[in-house]
Task: inverse folding
């Protein structure tokens, strides 16, 4: 018995051009058409899967970049904390030596009564002009900023917080000058007085300059009388306007700055 031959099926596509040319017919086997459709579907599926995979990879990459940025910020923050820790240790070191008067501010160590550097042991009659000038340059005698005094020195026991300095009002960013030769023992931020500079002078004197807009000196920097050490400001929790809070300490105790510099005092060196 003879085998029956299967008839091959074709799929025809008729192409009719817009011009006068004869129409064309494209024949394609159904098996070939199925292969092409299967291949097209496979390609589309691969494209979709590839796109989805790409976006997932892109999201992972973006998350990685964000994590790197956060890690960088954390590392930077840790470095700043380490720096602040070092600054705090340095401040604590100075505090041990120069313990402060108002809420832990700094001051110089007390001198003994028989200290050879005391002014009482100096014989000015035996000194030449240059030696006398050197001594007077070490004693606070220069008004640190030009302005008018809004509050004076007041140790009234009835006050909750005695005012151990004077306040001098002046325009913001007015130069603040050192009142005598000395060495900077503190420059930085305090909660009450904002930016503060403290200078230690010879013969038991030290001076404090508070509420500065910006400090211009470094710790252990040697300062000459009249040098600009800061810009007047309004920083700190207890400030009520642009002014300089100025203190003078002698042998570990506050003294009235007006006694040494006067409200309108000029350089006496």
Result:
């Amino acid at each position: 018995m003879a085998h029956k031959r299967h008839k091959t099926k074709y799929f025809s596509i008729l192409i009719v051009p817009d011009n006068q040319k004869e129409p064309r017919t494209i024949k394609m086997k159904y098996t070939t058409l199925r292969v092409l459709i299967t291949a097209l579907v496979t390609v589309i599926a691969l494209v979709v899967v590839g796109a989805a995979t790409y976006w997932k990879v892109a999201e992972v990459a973006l998350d990685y970049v964000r994590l790197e940025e956060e890690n960088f910020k954390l590392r930077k923050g840790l470095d700043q904390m380490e720096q602040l820790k070092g600054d705090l240790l340095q401040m604590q070191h100075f505090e041990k030596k120069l313990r402060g008067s108002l809420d832990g501010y700094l001051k110089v160590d007390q001198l003994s009564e028989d200290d050879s550097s005391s002014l009482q042991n100096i014989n000015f009659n035996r000194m030449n002009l240059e030696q006398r000038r050197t001594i007077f340059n070490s004693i606070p005698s220069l008004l640190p900023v030009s302005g008018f005094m809004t509050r004076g020195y007041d140790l009234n026991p009835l006050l909750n917080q005695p005012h151990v300095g004077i306040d001098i009002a002046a325009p913001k960013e007015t130069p603040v000058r050192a009142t005598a030769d000395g060495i900077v023992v503190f420059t930085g931020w305090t909660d009450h007085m904002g930016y503060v500079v403290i200078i230690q002078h010879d013969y038991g004197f030290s001076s404090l300059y508070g509420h500065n807009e910006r400090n211009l000196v470094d710790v252990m920097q040697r300062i000459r009388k009249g040098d600009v050490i800061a810009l007047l400001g309004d920083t700190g929790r207890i400030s009520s306007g642009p002014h300089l809070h100025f203190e003078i300490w002698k042998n570990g105790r506050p003294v009235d700055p007006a006694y040494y510099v006067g409200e309108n005092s000029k350089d006496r060196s």
About this structure: The chain has two domains: 7-97, 119-260.
